[in-house]
Amino acid sequence: GIFSGGTQSGKNGIAVMLDSMKRFESDAVLQAMGCWSLVNIALAPSQKAVLVKLGGISVVANAMMQHQFNAEVQFRALFALINLVIPSV
C-alpha cells in the first residue's frame, strides 16, 4: 500500500508526506491537510510507530508554530498529536 511500500525514491508514503510538510511549511492548506492525514494514519499502531520514528511529532509541532493563528491547522495538528501520543490498544 501507499503507506508501507517504497517509492522510486526509496521512501514510503509516510516519509513522502512528512517531507512535503517540511518542504512546504509556509503552506497552511498543505499543513492542515497533512495533519488531518496524520490523524487517521496514527490510528493504526504500526503506522503510528513509523510516524513517530520519522519525526511526525516535530513536523506537527512545527506546523502549529508556523501557523499560530490558523484555526484549521491548530485543530488538526492538535488532533494529530493526540492520536500520536495516546497508547495503542
Description:
With 89 residues, this protein is mostly helical. Helix content is 67%, strand content 0%. It has 5 helices and no strands. Helix 4 packs antiparallel against helix 5. The radius of gyration is 12 Å and the shape is globular. The mean pLDDT is 91.
Summary keywords:
0% strand, globular, 89 residues, single chain, 5 helices, mainly alpha
Concise synopsis of the structure shown:
It contains 5 helices and no strands.
Taking Cα atoms only, what radius of gyration do you get, to the nearest Å? 12 Å
Order of helices and strands: HHHHH
Q: CA-to-CA gap between the ends?
A: 23 Å
Average per-residue pLDDT, rounded, comes to: 91
Helices and strands, with pairings:
Layout: H1 13-23, H2 28-41, H3 45-53, H4 56-66, H5 71-85
Helix pairs in contact: 2-4, 2-5, 4-5
